[in-house]
Amino acid sequence: MHDPSPWAIEAEDLGKQYRRRWALQECSFRLPAGRVCAMVGPNGAGKSTFLGIAARLLQPSAGNLRLCGVPVSDPAVLKRVAYLAQNKPLYPRFTVAETLRLGRELNPRWDQSVAERIVRSGNVPLDARVGTLSGGQRTRVAFAVAFGKRPELLLLDEPMSDLDPLARDELSGLLMAEVAEHGTTVLMSSHMLAEVEEMCDYLLVLAGGRLRMAGPTDALVPAHMLVTGRAVGDRVPAELTERHTVVESRVSGRQFSALIRPEGPLPSHSGAPGDAPWDAMPPSLEEILLACMRSPDAPALIMDEALKETAA
Ligand SMILES: Nc1ncnc2c1ncn2[C@@H]1O[C@H](COP(=O)(O)OP(=O)(O)OP(=O)(O)O)[C@@H](O)[C@H]1O
To answer: With a 6 A CB cut-off, is 43 part of the ligand 1 pocket?
Structure first.
């Protein structure tokens, strides 16, 4: 038996270049084992590229990646990691039962009962050919194969995008139960911010191929404030921009709103004369994610827990 690594993912200066263009660049972070982590970012941010490297489908052009303590180049990671690709590739001519049998034959830790339960709860006939299933049914079979493998790390590329709301609710419940019962780590890319907020306790935000934010949700959210008030001319007050990190700001008429990372206490607005003429309130996770994605040039925020220590 191997000693379990405390880190499910350790990326160090990871990069991927297609021809002359970097799709992923200087990506360094670590993800503690047992977390449910969302990877969020606009189209083309580099999410599938990262997941493809982690799934050994793509070779990195730079840097290092370790999964569950094992270098991604080592075939030993194959047993420990399952990957559900965005297009859910399966053999269309196999029946559902044959697909699960293949999973059993390829995976020493295969759990047939969990795989069958997932398929049956969606009323997907075991004797149906995969090529005749609907998109959502195929996703369910692909989920069954990924879960049946009983991986330590589950990589999911937009897993819920073609599921109906009932199936989404059921499979996200199953995912959370799996994590709680077996300590599985999940990394899932998603554009559904409500789903991210509900399911995930760790976040990675990519934009333009670079990591913009990383860390536990319960540390990232309190690191931000939403400030609104009277603009100074057509600008956000200098007292804010000079003392705090402004992620995103807007001025509309005589009002401004800004999502900031306070670098110290913020003066509160009590209405008293001489008081700062603005209000500050905690933003929602969705407000933070949208601002962060809209502002790829804002300073990155990588929380201490997600920092990858580089070798001295
Ligand atoms: N095989 C390829 N050849 C050339 N460029 C590619 C290739 N695959 C991806 N790219 C480019 O790399 C960048 C990152 O793509 P990637 O698919 O990783 O983004 P993503 O964040 O997963 O996007 P989406 O949310 O749209 O799925 C994009 O600019 C894309 O055009």
So the answer is: yes
